Amino acid sequence: MEKAPKLELKTLPKHMKCVYLGECETLSVIITNYLMATREEQLLRVLREHKTTIRWTLTNIKGISRAICMHRILLKDDAKPVREPQSKLKVVMKEILKLVHQGIIYQIYDSQWVSPIHMVPKNTSLTTNKHNELVPARVQNDYKM
């Protein structure tokens, strides 16, 4: 039987699910929840055939040092989470909701720590008008994180 690392999975978003390639719920992978049954069977068959190529832990990856792949933030014993007010809150929420909707990020409900978000105006392209003056080609009304 394959030895799999002990996982502590957070609750997955509804479009993802955890399946196992090994026996007795070992060798877990996360796949989309929206595959048809036949497609899911095909995917799992291919993953099971090639499960030896999947590196289940960092120690399985040859030539990669744990010091390069992992980082730790050393905190003092009395450290407490701090939430700073966000400027442009509507812009931040719009961008976060877009990333959640696309499945790029998902919410973790049990964390007290947050990462500050910095919003930067997107560049506007410039063009010349009939008087040979530089003018914005589009109005700047969007931001990037």
Offer a quick outline of the entry.
21% of the residues lie in helices and 14% in strands. It is of the alpha+beta class and 145 residues long.
How do the SSEs run, as a string of H and E? EEHHHEEEE
List the strand order in the largest sheet: 1-2
Q: What is the terminal separation in angstroms?
A: 45 Å
Cα-based radius of gyration, to the nearest Å? 23 Å
Question: Which residues sit in consecutive blocks of at least 5 with pLDDT less than 50?
Answer: none
Q: Give the fraction of residues assigned to helices.
A: 10-25%
Question: Number of helical runs?
Answer: 3
**Tally of separate domains:** 2
Percentage of β-strand residues: 5-15%
**Number of beta-strand segments:** 6
Biggest sheet statistics: 2 strands, antiparallel
Mean pLDDT: 76
Tell the overall outline: extended
Structure description:
The chain is 21% helix and 14% strand. The chain folds into two domains: 16-68, no CATH class; 89-144, no CATH class. A hairpin with a 5-residue loop joins β4 and β5. The protein is extended and about 70 Å long. The chain has helices at 37-49, 66-69, 89-101; strands at residues 16-20, 28-32, 120-121, 126-128, 134-136, 143-144. The strands form three sheets. The chain has a two-stranded antiparallel sheet. It has a two-stranded antiparallel ribbon with strand order 3-6. It has a two-stranded antiparallel ribbon with strand order 4-5. The protein has three helices and six strands, in the order ββαααββββ. The relative contact order is 0.11. By secondary structure, the protein is of the alpha+beta class. The two termini are 45 Å apart. The mean pLDDT is 76.
